[in-house]
Amino acid sequence: MSEKTNRQWRLSSRPVGMVSEANFDFVEEPIPEIGEGEYLVRNLYLSFDPAMRGWMEDRASYIPPVGIGEVMRAGTVGEVTESRHPDFAVGDRVQGLFGWQEYAVGGRGLAQGTKVPEGMPITWPLGVCGITGLTAYFGLLDLGRPEPGETVLVSGAAGATGSVVAQIAKLKGCRVVGIAGGPAKCALLTDDFGLDAAIDYKAEDVQARIAETCPDGVNIYFDNVGGPILDAALANLAQRARVVLCGGISGYNEKEPPPGPRNLMNLVIQRGRMEGFIVIDYMARFPEATAELAEWVTSGSIRHLEDVQEGIENAVQTFLRLFRGQNTGKQLLKL
Ligand SMILES: NC(=O)c1ccc[n+]([C@@H]2O[C@H](COP(=O)([O-])OP(=O)(O)OC[C@H]3O[C@@H](n4cnc5c(N)ncnc54)[C@H](OP(=O)(O)O)[C@@H]3O)[C@@H](O)[C@H]2O)c1
Questions:
Q1: Rounded to two decimals, what is the model's pTM?
Q2: What separation in Å is there between the alpha carbon of 247 and the centre of ligand 1?
Q3: CATH code of the domain covering residue 182
Q4: Out of 9-23, 146-160, 254-268, 311-325, which region has the weakest mean confidence (pLDDT)?
Q5: Residues 273, 279, 282, 288, Cα dihedral to 10°
């Protein structure tokens, strides 16, 4: 890492179809000066989240789009190296939306930042004890409302969110079936995470395999991917099923939105409920959930996998790993 400069990735154009390096400029700038009420952060790890693809689009959403010419927004963790902020001291470990860069100004705009809880491993606030774990927690427990003995189906099950959903569902006494791409991820789900069955959507007939592995129907479907997998799940609902719409990564890089599901009528027939959510709506309850997630991880009840790439110059390639299915567990980049 350069001593005097700040290497950054700035958004240079809005992607049409699959995002690529051509949508960014890799630039080197002086380390920024901080003003009164601000602090300087040296980023240690960047988080990669499929939602960041949506932030690159010029459209109204739950958060403003990243502007052309701005540093690519991302959650990060780092260390305070200078401070003119009353609540942050040099050496503090912080988390926040500090972006794809080596140094960032905290206490400004969306990059207000918060301290990493005392004693918590530095990467956890980006994964299992951050947005990822919280998404799994509130999506499954608040929207899905699992009961012991119910069957929970999870897509993107070897990913950051899905792997936590699947394990919390097991903790709640459910039968859990995971959907993931490839035999290695499927073996991980059954052999390491203790799921009851796994479906390789790249090699198997998903609808038929859901019917086979969930013979009494699906009580909760936690959807991370959308598209044909969502449709296959809808075809296999049990009565009073809950479909939790968390994300739809299969469509994030499509030029046109994929066609809607064809099996929606099954919600009527099975008296089901389908509901979307955005995790930031639960912010007031983050402390209680973070504490419970941390306790589950510390006690070994939940296994937390991280996929750590290295080097700021590899930020775009690391982002692409999400859409290529190359990550297992939480995708991070170490600086
Ligand atoms: N609602 C919320 O507040 C909220 C918050 C956080 C995340 N999310 C959503 O949760 C989902 C998972 O996010 P994450 O951060 O945990 O990412 P992740 O699951 O760790 O990584 C993405 C995974 O998606 C799978 N994938 C990629 N393209 C696919 C396709 N065409 N069809 C099926 N699967 C595909 C890949 O796994 P395979 O190898 O198995 O294909 C890849 O590993 C995303 O949809 C994200 O937008 C929602």
A1: 0.96
A2: 7
A3: 3.40.50.720
A4: 254-268
A5: 110
The C-alpha angle 303, 221, 192, rounded to 5 degrees, equals 25
> How many whole angstroms from 326 Cα to the centroid of ligand 1?
11
Nearest 5 degrees, angle CA 13-CA 260-CA 54?
25
**How many domains, in total, are found in the chain?**
2
Asked if the structure places residue 300 within a domain, the reply is: no
Residue from 62, 129, 224, 250 whose mutation best tests the ligand 1 pocket (most atoms within 8 A of CB) = 224
Residue 158 Cα to ligand 1 middle (Å): 9
pLDDT of residue 6: 98
Residue with CA nearest ligand 1 atom 9:
247
Domain that holds residue 145: 131-280
Residue minimizing CA distance to atom 43 of ligand 1: 325
In a domain, 49, yes or no: yes
CA angle 301, 306, 310 (to 5 degrees): 160
In a domain, 36, yes or no: yes
**Alpha carbon nearest to ligand 1 atom 2, residue:** 278
